[in-house]
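Notebook entry, structure prediction.
Reason for the run: the old model in the group folder had no record of what sequence produced it. Starting over properly, with the input documented here first.
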Amino acid sequence: MARVRLPKNLGDCEIIITKAGSPAVWNRKSGKNRFLLACRNIEEAEKVLQKIRANDGLEDIWL
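New structure, fully documented this time:
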């Protein structure tokens, strides 16, 4: 399992398709509050997004 650190000001996250064609979870921010996590497929991206939304203000999640 891998630990992913979340920025303090995460905001709303969504699933996007990168230029390479792989899905990613992104919060549409730049700088130190930017969050971008590349995923293998859409199903994995949806699971990651659910874990992030269910997170109750913790600094990290385990994937």
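Summary: The longest helix spans residues 42-54.
The old model has been moved to the deprecated folder.
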